[in-house]
């Protein structure tokens, strides 16, 4: 159905582009998907780390290349310059990645400060680059008691704010201390099966979107002349601009 653009007087015809299905059918990259895993505890036996390690093994078995960031030594946000070695390591890994996994314990009904600090060190824009925009994200949570989804819900909001494509499936492991053996491997259970499901879904979404991310996040509002695209990307757009739902 064709619509006369003159009937849309608020629209800038020069910046308006009709979505093109042919733009979604380009040749696909053949290298292994690159996945960065972050975890949210510094304990010697950290169950969020053990869960992230198990996820990394599954991703590798599915054909992905993985990196696990160690948050030990990462300063609190704004407590060190951006040139700090751990900050630079985290940012370089973020740029390297095509998808991410966040694994957090639930503490006082929320995601951990250790994981939040890592996300706070990742900028929405870095020069002309947007380190996280259009990349995929899977969410994992561990709890010491009964199953909960508070940390997952918080991370899902944060993933949206970071403009990540957060997959629908997620994993919440209750009484995590019962779900791993002494060496730290996850035991067979419905929780393990769900973890496999989530990693499989993450990899499929990454393969589906990684070569199309630039097209998928190309925005009318940022194509308009005079638009501060980086301000819009950071959420600092003028109040009159309605945030996406």
Describe this structure in words.
It is a single chain. This protein has about 240 residues and is of the alpha/beta class. It has one domain: 3-Layer(aba) Sandwich (Rossmann fold), CATH 3.40.50. It is about 35% helix and about 15% strand. It is globular, with a radius of gyration of 20 Å. The two termini are about 25 Å apart. The C terminus is likely disordered.
Shape: globular
CATH architecture assignment name: 3-Layer(aba) Sandwich
Task: Report how far the terminal alpha carbons are from each other.
Answer: 26 Å
What is the tally of helical segments?
A: 8
Q: Hey, roughly how much beta strand do the residues contain? A: 5-15%
CATH class: Alpha Beta
Radius of gyration: 20 Å
Please mark out the parts with pLDDT under 50 across 5 or more consecutive residues, or reply none: 232-245
CATH superfamily label:
Flavodoxin domain
Summarize the biggest pleated sheet: 7 strands, mixed
Return the structural class. Answer: alpha/beta
And the CATH topology?
A: Rossmann fold
Number of strands: 7
Helical residues, percent? 25-40%
Helix and strand run: EHEHEEHEHEEHHHH
Task: Supply the number of structural domains.
Answer: 1
Global mean pLDDT: 88
How are the SSEs ordered, and which strands pair?
Elements: E1 34-39, H1 47-61, E2 65-68, H2 85-96, E3 99-107, E4 110-111, H3 113-120, E5 136-142, H4 150-161, E6 165-166, E7 171-173, H5 190-209, H6 213-216, H7 220-223, H8 229-233
Parallel strand pairs: 1-2, 1-3, 3-5, 5-6, 5-7
Antiparallel strand pairs: 3-4
């Amino acid at each position: 159905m064709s619509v006369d653009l003159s009937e849309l007087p608020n629209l800038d015809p020069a910046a308006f582009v009709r979505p093109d299905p042919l733009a979604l059918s380009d040749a696909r990259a053949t290298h292994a998907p690159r996945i960065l895993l972050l975890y949210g505890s510094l304990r010697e036996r950290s169950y969020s780390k053990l869960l992230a390690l198990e996820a990394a093994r599954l991703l590798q078995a599915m054909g992905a290349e993985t990196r696990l960031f160690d948050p030990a030594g990462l300063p609190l946000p704004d407590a060190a310059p951006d040139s700090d070695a751990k900050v630079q390591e985290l940012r370089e890994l973020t740029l390297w990645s095509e998808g991410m996994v966040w694994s957090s314990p639930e503490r006082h009904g929320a995601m951990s400060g250790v994981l939040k600090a890592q996300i706070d060190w990742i900028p929405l824009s870095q020069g002309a680059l947007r380190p996280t925009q259009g990349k995929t994200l899977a969410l994992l949570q561990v709890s010491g008691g009964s199953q909960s989804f508070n940390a997952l819900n918080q991370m899902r909001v944060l993933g949206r704010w970071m403009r990540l494509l957060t997959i629908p499936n997620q994993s919440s492991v209750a009484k995590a201390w019962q779900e791993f053996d002494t060496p730290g491997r996850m035991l067979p259970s419905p929780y393990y099966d769900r973890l496999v499901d989530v990693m499989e879904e993450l990899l499929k979404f990454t393969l589906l979107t990684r070569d199309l991310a630039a097209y998928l996040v190309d925005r009318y509002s940022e194509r308009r002349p005079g638009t501060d695209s980086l301000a819009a990307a950071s959420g600092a757009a003028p109040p009159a601009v309605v945030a996406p739902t």
